[in-house]
Design a protein that fits this description.
Elements: E1 2-3, E2 9-10, H1 12-24, E3 29-39, E4 42-53, E5 57-70, E6 73-80, H2 83-93
Antiparallel strand pairs: 1-2, 3-4, 4-5, 5-6
Length: 100
């Protein structure tokens, strides 16, 4: 599931469609993925991202995600600020990441 900033949660098909639109509009781009396996079925990923801020500014930033797999698929993904926040979040919530 993907949650928009306004709190609206999208299902898997809607999430895929929203991400495809974001990538195809030329405003949001993702590049240079790096991964670190923390434990079996748990990994961190980092990537550079560019996104539109407001009506006319672009922001380049590093995006860090904490991934948990289940049955060979991504089960939970949480955006985190950095590796330390990911480890703290994983320790606090376990493999559900506090997402239900």
């Amino acid at each position: 599931m993907f949650r928009w900033p306004n709190g609206q949660t999208l299902g898997p098909d809607e999430t895929a469609e929203a991400l495809a639109r974001a990538m195809n509009d030329g405003v949001y781009s993702i590049r240079d993925w790096r991964y670190e396996e923390l434990e079996p079925r748990v990994a961190l990923s980092w990537t550079g991202a560019r996104r539109l801020v407001g009506d006319a500014r672009m922001r380049d930033e590093v995006v860090c995600r904490l991934h948990v797999g289940r049955d060979g698929l991504m089960w939970r993904v949480k955006l985190v600020a950095d590796r330390e926040e990911a480890l703290e979040h994983l320790q606090r919530f376990g493999p559900t990441l506090g997402l239900g």
